[in-house]
Structures are given as C-alpha cells and as structure tokens.
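Researcher: I'd like a structural prediction for the single chain below. Treat it as a standalone chain; there are no partners to consider.
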Amino acid sequence: MKTKANQRTFAMTEAMQTHSPRLLSMIGGRIRNEIEAQDIAQDVFIEFLEAYDTDQVFDSLRSWLMKVAQNKILDRFRKRKTESNYRDDIETENPIEPISPDMPDDELERAWLRQQMADALEACPAEQREVFILHELEGKSFEEIAESTGRNVNTLLSQKRYALQFLRNYLKETYDELE
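Model: Treating it as a single chain, here is the predicted structure.
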C-alpha cells in the first residue's frame, strides 16, 4: 500500500526523469548561466510539489512545467530590472513574454520550437547561418547571394549544406523530444 509520501516521491521522480531534459533545454536557451538555469528548474519542481500537495490536476504536466518555467524566467528578468539602474536591462536579455495558463498546448509548443530554432541559428557558424537565412528565410537565389557576398555559388551550396547538417545535429534532441 502506497502512502501519500511514497506517492509524492514517485510523482516527483517520474516528473523529473520525464521532463527535466526538455525543461533544462528550454531554460538553458534563455538563461545562459548554467547555475541560474538549474536554480530555475529546481524552483519549477518545487512548485510542482506544492501543486501536487494540493491535489492539483494537470491536463498536461509537460505544458504546465513549461509555463511555470517561462514565468519564473520572466520573474528573474523583472527582478534584475528592479535591482539595476539600467532601463534597457530586460530588452537586452531578450525576455520571454509571460505565458497565460489559458494558452493552448500547441501554441506553447510552437513558441518553444521557434525559440529552439532561433538558438540553433545563433549557434550556427556565421557564414553558414548567413547563407541559410538568405536562401531559406529570405528566399534569395544562390546567384543573388553570390552577387551580394562575392562568394561563388558552389561555395554557397556547400555552406548551406553544412548549415543544414549543423542545424539537424543541434536540433536532434529537440526533435527526439517531440517524438
């Protein structure tokens, strides 16, 4: 027979094993300091325990954890703003808009995926990123890109191929999480 304490421990262990990698990935994409990112994740799981203790029902635990994390990240940016005299502090840190508890799961998922893609592009080597953006996002032909950059078309084709390989590898974990 499981006691309430055993059920609580089991629920926390299962939640952490299932959702920690994705949660830490999302937080780490917004908070560059690893220790601070881990603190936020810990705060999220503490809030989970508090909600669990009140017998809160979760439609989707993953979405609930992501929403809590987003709001905790925003709280950190707000706290920094009030602690500093720099009026542009929040804009510099690229804050995340607060996520409403009413936001549908698919919108939350799309926002998370957009952020993952932006992070991947940011990490991509500069020349490869430039070619990828110009060709895929701006719709320019390789000939147009060659004229504007002074690089030959074959070089651009190779750089785009390397960018795709880089992005594929970088986003593999994200893709695997969606499976």
